[in-house]
Design goal:
about 400 residues, alpha+beta
């Protein structure tokens, strides 16, 4: 019994924040270069900003509808209070698009998203108020129930339960706190920021390499100070670029630093861009990196982006809607569904060829195809065709 209790007992110090989990796993926000990488700092890197923007806006543009399943039917649950919350506006100051964009941005930069659930009549959620992930600390109580210690803007704190907090998390190692991608990728992001800063400093100095002034004579302190001041004023910054040097006292200029090509500056920046795209699973061409994109593979890269980058976010959100926002008696009847079909549509010819085959083989009706193209239904367009050679009794179809 003692061994069993030891194996299944929890530590006295709870890992209740992404920072604590990162420190427990040996992953902190401080990089080797000394730069502290937070979500805000990471967004200063153009590739991180581009990846987060592509993911959040791609999810935000997709309609999320509450569906009701019955006896072989699946229809939008327009009569449910949660339908408007997911599809139109989750609160009084945000649209559904803005809410989903914020949710995905929090997952990309923090690994967790929290919202306060305002409930109305019958215990149904009537409003979702997003919360800063940095003000919420999740943990487990003595009964293994998730609780959330929230710090409010006025400095006060309160402990809320799952019935009040809607928590969406990324991949987790403890079942409670989502892993922070920025904390784990801090070295790659820091290197990208360092190379950007290096390039900015290089061009700030007029792209002139660093060097040394040397002489065989001994300079006095007064001469050294005058030389240093004169050199900084005359040859520092872009305004003083390409000005001739006037040296005295046997001084000579010897450049010692490597140029951008020798230090592989451009190759390093390119590699960091690809590495960060791999962290967020965003195809490089979506952040304006067209080096390896061709007409033959860019369409497949777009499909892979939907299947392997967006779908994990979409299914994660859909499951948390069903578990965290629906009442237990409604969970088997209602479910949330993002419509990602708009991102997988081909060109006009490919779509019409697909519609034609669907109608020919009785998979789709003409009105269903018209609905996919945002066209009004036509009279007699709700029929499903069946090829004569595919029926069990072709003569029966002729008589009809």
């Amino acid at each position: 019994m003692k061994l069993f209790a030891k194996l299944f007992s929890r530590k006295s110090t709870a890992i209740d924040t992404p920072q604590a989990l990162a420190e427990e796993l040996g992953v902190s926000y401080d990089s080797v270069s000394g730069r502290r990488i937070s979500g805000g700092q990471a967004m200063r890197l153009t590739t991180v900003f581009g990846c987060v923007r592509v993911l959040s806006e791609s999810v935000g543009m997709l309609p999320c509808r509450l569906m009701e399943q019955g006896d072989g039917t699946r229809l939008p649950a327009t009569g449910h209070s949660l339908y408007r919350l997911l599809n139109v506006a989750p609160n009084d100051f945000m649209t559904a698009q803005e809410f989903w964009e914020l949710l995905v941005a929090c997952l990309c930069l923090r690994g967790n998203f929290y919202a306060y659930k305002v409930k109305g009549l019958g215990g149904r959620v009537s409003e979702l108020l997003p919360m800063d992930p940095g003000t919420v600390q999740p943990s487990l109580d003595s009964k293994w129930n998730p609780v959330y210690r929230v710090t409010f803007p006025d400095g006060s704190t309160d402990v809320l339960g799952q019935d009040q907090i809607w928590h969406v998390r990324l991949m987790t190692l403890d079942g409670l706190v989502g892993l922070n991608p920025v904390a784990y990728a801090r070295e790659a992001i820091a290197l990208g920021l360092d190379t950007e800063e290096h390039g900015a400093q290089l061009f700030r100095n007029g792209a002139v390499t660093t060097g040394v002034l040397s002489t065989e004579q001994t300079l006095t302190d007064k001469a050294y100070a005058r030389l240093k001041k004169d050199f900084e004023e005359r040859h520092g910054g872009l305004a003083n670029n390409h000005k001739p040097m006037i040296l005295e006292g046997g001084l000579s200029w010897k450049p010692i630093s490597l140029n951008a090509e020798d230090s592989q500056f451009l190759q390093t920046r390119q590699f960091q861009r690809d590495e960060i795209c791999a962290i967020f699973r965003v195809p490089p061409h979506l952040v304006a990196n067209m080096e390896k994109a061709t007409f033959s593979n860019i369409e497949h890269q777009g499909m892979n982006f939907v299947n392997y980058s967006l779908v994990p976010y979409l299914t994660r959100i859909e499951h948390r809607v069903q578990v965290g926002l629906l009442r237990p008696q409604d969970q088997g009847r209602y479910y949330a569904k993002f419509n990602a079909g708009a991102l997988q549509r081909g060109d006009l010819k490919a779509r019409y060829d697909s519609y034609g085959k669907g109608i020919q083989w009785g998979i789709l009706s003409p009105n269903e195809c018209r609905d996919l193209e945002d066209l009004n239904p036509r009279e007699g367009g709700d029929i499903y065709l069946t090829p004569t050679n595919m029926t069990t009794k072709p003569e029966a179809g002729d008589r009809e």
